[in-house]
Amino acid sequence: MERIVVVGAGHMGSVIVRGLLDGMPQVEVVIVEPSPERRASLDGRAEVVAAYDPRADDLLVLAIPPQAFDSFADGLPRGACAGVTVVSIMAGVRLETLASALGTDTVLRAMPNLASRVGQSMTVLCPGPQVPAEGVDRAKGALSVIGKVLVIQDESLLDAATAVAGSGPALVAYLAQSFTDFARGAGFTPDDALLLTTQVLRGTADVLSEPGVTPQSLYQQASTPNGTTAEGIATLREHRVGESVRTALEATTERARELAG
Protein backbone atom coordinates (compact mmCIF):
# COMPACT_ATOMS: atom_id res chain seq x y z
CA MET A 1 0.00 0.00 0.00
CA GLU A 2 1.27 3.47 -0.86
CA ARG A 3 2.28 5.46 2.20
CA ILE A 4 2.06 9.24 2.55
CA VAL A 5 3.64 10.78 5.62
CA VAL A 6 2.73 14.32 6.67
CA VAL A 7 5.14 15.97 9.09
CA GLY A 8 3.43 18.69 11.10
CA ALA A 9 -0.21 18.83 12.18
CA GLY A 10 -0.67 22.58 12.09
CA HIS A 11 -3.35 24.22 9.96
CA MET A 12 -2.02 23.28 6.52
CA GLY A 13 -0.79 19.85 7.57
CA SER A 14 -4.17 19.00 9.07
CA VAL A 15 -5.98 20.18 5.94
CA ILE A 16 -3.78 17.98 3.74
CA VAL A 17 -4.30 14.98 6.02
CA ARG A 18 -8.06 15.43 5.98
CA GLY A 19 -8.02 15.72 2.19
CA LEU A 20 -5.93 12.55 1.86
CA LEU A 21 -8.16 10.57 4.21
CA ASP A 22 -11.32 11.68 2.42
CA GLY A 23 -10.01 11.62 -1.14
CA MET A 24 -7.47 8.79 -1.19
CA PRO A 25 -8.82 6.03 1.08
CA GLN A 26 -6.56 3.47 -0.59
CA VAL A 27 -3.45 5.22 0.79
CA GLU A 28 -1.89 4.71 4.22
CA VAL A 29 -1.65 8.12 5.87
CA VAL A 30 0.79 8.76 8.71
CA ILE A 31 1.01 11.98 10.73
CA VAL A 32 4.27 12.91 12.43
CA GLU A 33 3.60 15.27 15.32
CA PRO A 34 5.99 15.61 18.27
CA SER A 35 3.51 17.45 20.51
CA PRO A 36 1.62 14.97 22.78
CA GLU A 37 -1.28 17.40 23.21
CA ARG A 38 -1.71 17.86 19.47
CA ARG A 39 -1.32 14.13 18.77
CA ALA A 40 -4.24 13.40 21.09
CA SER A 41 -6.55 15.62 19.03
CA LEU A 42 -5.71 14.30 15.55
CA ASP A 43 -7.92 12.34 13.15
CA GLY A 44 -8.11 8.76 14.35
CA ARG A 45 -8.24 7.41 10.80
CA ALA A 46 -4.53 8.11 10.36
CA GLU A 47 -1.59 6.58 12.16
CA VAL A 48 -0.07 9.19 14.46
CA VAL A 49 3.58 9.01 15.54
CA ALA A 50 6.01 11.27 17.36
CA ALA A 51 8.97 10.84 14.99
CA TYR A 52 9.51 9.95 11.34
CA ASP A 53 10.80 6.48 10.51
CA PRO A 54 11.66 6.66 6.78
CA ARG A 55 10.72 3.91 4.36
CA ALA A 56 11.80 3.65 0.74
CA ASP A 57 9.03 4.83 -1.59
CA ASP A 58 7.43 7.09 1.05
CA LEU A 59 5.86 10.32 -0.13
CA LEU A 60 6.92 12.72 2.62
CA VAL A 61 5.09 16.03 2.98
CA LEU A 62 6.90 18.61 5.11
CA ALA A 63 4.25 20.89 6.61
CA ILE A 64 6.40 22.36 9.38
CA PRO A 65 7.60 25.94 9.90
CA PRO A 66 10.84 26.71 8.02
CA GLN A 67 12.63 27.37 11.30
CA ALA A 68 11.88 23.78 12.40
CA PHE A 69 13.44 22.19 9.32
CA ASP A 70 17.05 22.03 10.51
CA SER A 71 16.03 20.23 13.68
CA PHE A 72 13.92 17.75 11.72
CA ALA A 73 16.67 17.02 9.20
CA ASP A 74 19.35 16.71 11.90
CA GLY A 75 17.22 14.11 13.67
CA LEU A 76 17.29 11.72 10.72
CA PRO A 77 20.08 9.16 10.21
CA ARG A 78 22.34 10.04 7.30
CA GLY A 79 20.98 8.55 4.07
CA ALA A 80 17.66 7.60 5.68
CA CYS A 81 15.64 9.45 3.02
CA ALA A 82 17.14 7.58 0.07
CA GLY A 83 14.21 6.54 -2.09
CA VAL A 84 11.84 8.96 -0.37
CA THR A 85 10.00 11.56 -2.44
CA VAL A 86 9.87 14.79 -0.44
CA VAL A 87 7.30 17.55 -0.93
CA SER A 88 7.97 20.70 1.07
CA ILE A 89 5.36 23.38 1.65
CA MET A 90 7.81 25.41 3.74
CA ALA A 91 8.13 28.95 2.43
CA GLY A 92 11.64 30.02 1.49
CA VAL A 93 13.44 26.67 1.78
CA ARG A 94 15.06 26.09 -1.61
CA LEU A 95 15.24 22.78 -3.46
CA GLU A 96 19.02 22.72 -3.13
CA THR A 97 18.75 23.12 0.64
CA LEU A 98 16.17 20.35 0.90
CA ALA A 99 18.25 17.93 -1.17
CA SER A 100 21.45 18.64 0.75
CA ALA A 101 19.91 18.39 4.22
CA LEU A 102 17.85 15.26 3.53
CA GLY A 103 20.33 13.42 1.33
CA THR A 104 17.94 12.83 -1.56
CA ASP A 105 17.50 14.44 -4.99
CA THR A 106 13.80 13.60 -5.23
CA VAL A 107 12.59 16.85 -3.67
CA LEU A 108 9.74 19.14 -4.68
CA ARG A 109 8.42 22.44 -3.39
CA ALA A 110 4.74 23.29 -3.22
CA MET A 111 2.86 26.49 -2.44
CA PRO A 112 -0.78 25.83 -1.42
CA ASN A 113 -3.08 28.55 -0.11
CA LEU A 114 -5.77 29.03 2.52
CA ALA A 115 -8.55 27.98 0.12
CA SER A 116 -7.25 24.45 0.65
CA ARG A 117 -9.55 24.19 3.66
CA VAL A 118 -12.55 24.11 1.31
CA GLY A 119 -10.82 22.00 -1.34
CA GLN A 120 -10.17 24.98 -3.62
CA SER A 121 -6.44 25.63 -3.21
CA MET A 122 -4.37 26.86 -6.13
CA THR A 123 -1.19 24.93 -5.38
CA VAL A 124 1.96 25.60 -7.39
CA LEU A 125 4.32 22.60 -7.49
CA CYS A 126 7.97 22.75 -8.54
CA PRO A 127 10.01 19.53 -8.81
CA GLY A 128 13.77 19.37 -8.51
CA PRO A 129 15.66 18.50 -11.70
CA GLN A 130 16.24 14.89 -10.60
CA VAL A 131 12.61 14.06 -9.81
CA PRO A 132 11.23 11.49 -12.28
CA ALA A 133 7.83 11.96 -13.92
CA GLU A 134 6.38 9.31 -11.62
CA GLY A 135 7.44 11.31 -8.57
CA VAL A 136 5.86 14.48 -9.95
CA ASP A 137 2.64 12.60 -10.64
CA ARG A 138 2.56 11.18 -7.11
CA ALA A 139 3.06 14.60 -5.56
CA LYS A 140 0.49 16.21 -7.85
CA GLY A 141 -2.04 13.48 -7.08
CA ALA A 142 -1.61 13.90 -3.34
CA LEU A 143 -1.95 17.68 -3.48
CA SER A 144 -4.96 17.47 -5.79
CA VAL A 145 -7.06 16.45 -2.79
CA ILE A 146 -6.99 20.10 -1.64
CA GLY A 147 -7.61 21.77 -5.01
CA LYS A 148 -5.97 22.54 -8.34
CA VAL A 149 -2.25 21.94 -8.92
CA LEU A 150 -0.04 23.79 -11.40
CA VAL A 151 3.36 22.21 -12.11
CA ILE A 152 6.21 24.57 -13.01
CA GLN A 153 9.87 23.85 -13.76
CA ASP A 154 11.45 27.19 -12.80
CA GLU A 155 11.92 27.48 -9.04
CA SER A 156 12.37 31.25 -9.26
CA LEU A 157 8.69 31.53 -10.24
CA LEU A 158 7.68 30.29 -6.80
CA ASP A 159 8.30 33.76 -5.37
CA ALA A 160 5.72 35.25 -7.74
CA ALA A 161 3.46 32.25 -7.06
CA THR A 162 3.66 33.13 -3.38
CA ALA A 163 2.29 36.57 -4.21
CA VAL A 164 -0.44 35.57 -6.66
CA ALA A 165 -1.55 32.18 -5.34
CA GLY A 166 -0.20 32.08 -1.79
CA SER A 167 -1.07 35.59 -0.60
CA GLY A 168 -3.73 36.11 -3.26
CA PRO A 169 -6.74 34.97 -1.20
CA ALA A 170 -5.88 37.42 1.59
CA LEU A 171 -5.32 40.26 -0.88
CA VAL A 172 -8.64 39.52 -2.60
CA ALA A 173 -10.33 39.37 0.82
CA TYR A 174 -8.88 42.80 1.62
CA LEU A 175 -10.46 44.20 -1.55
CA ALA A 176 -13.70 42.31 -0.86
CA GLN A 177 -13.93 44.07 2.49
CA SER A 178 -14.45 47.34 0.61
CA PHE A 179 -17.45 45.83 -1.20
CA THR A 180 -18.89 44.56 2.08
CA ASP A 181 -18.30 47.87 3.86
CA PHE A 182 -20.00 49.79 1.04
CA ALA A 183 -23.03 47.49 1.05
CA ARG A 184 -23.39 47.82 4.82
CA GLY A 185 -23.08 51.58 4.56
CA ALA A 186 -25.82 51.57 1.93
CA GLY A 187 -28.18 49.84 4.37
CA PHE A 188 -27.70 46.10 3.90
CA THR A 189 -27.36 43.91 6.96
CA PRO A 190 -23.87 42.49 7.61
CA ASP A 191 -24.99 39.02 6.51
CA ASP A 192 -26.60 40.29 3.32
CA ALA A 193 -23.60 42.49 2.53
CA LEU A 194 -21.31 39.47 2.87
CA LEU A 195 -23.65 37.35 0.73
CA LEU A 196 -23.63 39.97 -2.03
CA THR A 197 -19.84 40.13 -2.00
CA THR A 198 -19.10 36.41 -1.80
CA GLN A 199 -21.56 35.51 -4.54
CA VAL A 200 -20.09 38.18 -6.82
CA LEU A 201 -16.62 36.71 -6.26
CA ARG A 202 -17.81 33.14 -6.74
CA GLY A 203 -19.80 33.93 -9.87
CA THR A 204 -17.00 36.01 -11.39
CA ALA A 205 -14.51 33.19 -10.80
CA ASP A 206 -16.85 30.74 -12.53
CA VAL A 207 -17.28 33.02 -15.55
CA LEU A 208 -13.51 33.54 -15.78
CA SER A 209 -13.13 29.75 -15.88
CA GLU A 210 -15.09 29.56 -19.14
CA PRO A 211 -13.03 28.95 -22.31
CA GLY A 212 -11.79 32.13 -23.96
CA VAL A 213 -12.79 34.46 -21.13
CA THR A 214 -10.13 36.74 -19.62
CA PRO A 215 -10.43 39.36 -16.89
CA GLN A 216 -10.06 42.11 -19.49
CA SER A 217 -12.66 40.67 -21.86
CA LEU A 218 -15.11 40.27 -18.98
CA TYR A 219 -14.91 43.82 -17.66
CA GLN A 220 -14.93 45.25 -21.18
CA GLN A 221 -18.02 43.23 -22.06
CA ALA A 222 -19.78 44.47 -18.93
CA SER A 223 -18.81 48.11 -19.52
CA THR A 224 -21.61 49.58 -21.62
CA PRO A 225 -20.64 53.09 -22.83
CA ASN A 226 -21.84 55.72 -20.33
CA GLY A 227 -23.18 52.95 -18.09
CA THR A 228 -22.69 52.26 -14.40
CA THR A 229 -19.93 49.67 -14.81
CA ALA A 230 -18.00 51.89 -17.21
CA GLU A 231 -18.16 54.69 -14.64
CA GLY A 232 -16.81 52.38 -11.96
CA ILE A 233 -13.95 51.13 -14.16
CA ALA A 234 -13.05 54.70 -15.10
CA THR A 235 -12.89 55.65 -11.41
CA LEU A 236 -10.64 52.68 -10.63
CA ARG A 237 -8.32 53.75 -13.44
CA GLU A 238 -8.34 57.36 -12.27
CA HIS A 239 -7.19 56.24 -8.82
CA ARG A 240 -4.64 53.80 -10.30
CA VAL A 241 -6.09 50.82 -8.46
CA GLY A 242 -4.54 48.39 -10.93
CA GLU A 243 -1.10 49.85 -10.30
CA SER A 244 -1.64 49.64 -6.55
CA VAL A 245 -2.50 45.95 -6.79
CA ARG A 246 0.54 45.32 -8.98
CA THR A 247 2.74 47.16 -6.47
CA ALA A 248 1.35 45.03 -3.64
CA LEU A 249 2.11 41.85 -5.58
CA GLU A 250 5.64 43.05 -6.35
CA ALA A 251 6.22 43.82 -2.67
CA THR A 252 4.92 40.38 -1.70
CA THR A 253 7.20 38.73 -4.25
CA GLU A 254 10.21 40.66 -2.98
CA ARG A 255 9.42 39.66 0.59
CA ALA A 256 9.30 36.01 -0.48
CA ARG A 257 12.78 36.41 -1.99
CA GLU A 258 14.07 37.99 1.22
CA LEU A 259 12.72 35.15 3.35
CA ALA A 260 14.43 32.65 1.06
CA GLY A 261 17.74 34.42 1.55
Automatic annotation (TrEMBL):
Q: Does the keyword Mitochondrion apply?
A: no
Relate the protein's function as given in its record: Catalyzes the reduction of 1-pyrroline-5-carboxylate (PCA) to L-proline.
Q: Give me the residues that bind NADP(+), please.
A: 63-66
| Gene3D superfamilies found in the cross-reference section | NAD(P)-binding Rossmann-like Domain, ProC C-terminal domain-like
Entries under InterPro entries matching the protein: 6-PGluconate_DH-like_C_sf, NAD(P)-bd_dom_sf, P5C_Rdtase_cat_N, P5CR_dimer, Pyrroline-COOH_reductase
Name the predominant localization. Answer: cytoplasm
Gene Ontology, cellular component aspect: cytoplasm
Q: What EC number(s) are associated with this protein in UniProt?
A: 1.5.1.2
Which organism is this protein's natural source? Streptomyces bauhiniae
Q: Which gene encodes it?
A: proC
Cellular compartment(s): Cytoplasm
Q: In which pathway does it act?
A: Amino-acid biosynthesis; L-proline biosynthesis; L-proline from L-glutamate 5-semialdehyde: step 1/1
Give the protein's recorded name. Pyrroline-5-carboxylate reductase
Taxonomically, the superkingdom here is Bacteria
In which family does this protein belong, per the annotation?
A: Belongs to the pyrroline-5-carboxylate reductase family.
- Domain Pyrroline-5-carboxylate reductase dimerisation intervals: 155-259
Q: Keywords on this record?
A: Amino-acid biosynthesis, Cytoplasm, NADP, Oxidoreductase, Proline biosynthesis
User: GO:BP terms for this protein?
Assistant: L-proline biosynthetic process
